[in-house]
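## Example pair
The file below holds two records. Each record gives the amino-acid sequence first, followed by its structure token line.
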Amino acid sequence: MASSKIQAFWNHPAGPKTIHFWAPTFKWGISIANVADFSKPPEHISYPQQFVVACTGVIWSRYSTIITPKNWNLFSVSVGMAGTGLYQLSRKIRHDYLSAEEKEPLKE
């Protein structure tokens, strides 16, 4: 039973014998690096970089569900990229716009 599932995975059109498996697998490095940057101060976060990471994640997650064969490895890494990019953008926006309102003294 287990060997037939391993055999099916090995011979899948998006399995480990193809680039369609390895490219998304190595793409996890981008998401892992973004998670490592969660401890980075928000003032060092780049709007363009995180916008591109989030948009790339959204676009490729959609694409991975409409291609044949479905590439669930690409889908999962793309959702991860979109999530980390959106989280970093929310940190930057909160720092730049929401915390700025709290720091301003009241003018009477």
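Second record, same layout:
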Amino acid sequence: MSGHEHLAQALAECGRDSFTGELRVRGTPGGTFHFGDGRVVAVESPGAPGPEALLLRSGRVSGEQWAELVRESGGSRWPATAIIAHGYAGAAQLRVVCALALHDAAFAMAAGRVESCERVTSTELFAQVPLGEPPLRLLQDATRRLTALAALPHPVHPDRERPVRSGADHGSTALRRELLSHADGRRTARDLAFRVGRGVYTVTVEVARMLDEGLMVCAPPPAPVPVRSLPDGHALRPRKPPQGEQPPPAAYSDLPRRKPGSFFRLRNGTAK
């Protein structure tokens, strides 16, 4: 059974068992599905920006304001009530942001490598989407996105190719302008998504289209550092100090030992 088949089976079992807790996915990028009564109520992955990152990058909330919201909410991981109360976003807007982040994190995990899945039962529910999503429907949506991405004329992987702008074109949309300004040949589509505060799937599709239109090109992978081999019959030898150079001081353990009491001798009543 492949890693993705194992993930599909684990998600199906969590739904069938009305599981509440975490399904921890080990792999690259890996992540966690949070379940409530068999439905996925949040997904976290280092491979995709979460709702917090999307809100902060959008400018609706500053870093200082977010820290204050967390303190006000008693250290809550998702201070939705405080966000709404302070007018930083409405309830409908938060639902949309959380749903987008949930699907994007599931896509990032499906696009990566799955090694194992582990259930962890929890009584403290972490929910960002109150009604939740059926787990298999969520995985089917991720698979559909992968299929759509592969069908593009110039498909790319979220965490593989490293695009760079190819010319003087500054982009026709705000997203394209941002991507072109940050595409330096070192960042993948995933890196760019975190940089511009957009979903990984959205950014990966846009990068694929810009590559196809010639606005970007893929930077070649870094060349390996050449290692010069020694000629036959030669081997590494300890370095000899140049003539006249003093040898290093002896280690403490190499110093001669004195008998107890030999450092201080009384002479005429005076310690020497």
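Notes on the second record: Residues 260-272 have pLDDT under 50 and may be disordered. The beta strands are 21-28, 31-36, 39-44, 113-121, 163-165, 216-218, 266-267, 270-271.
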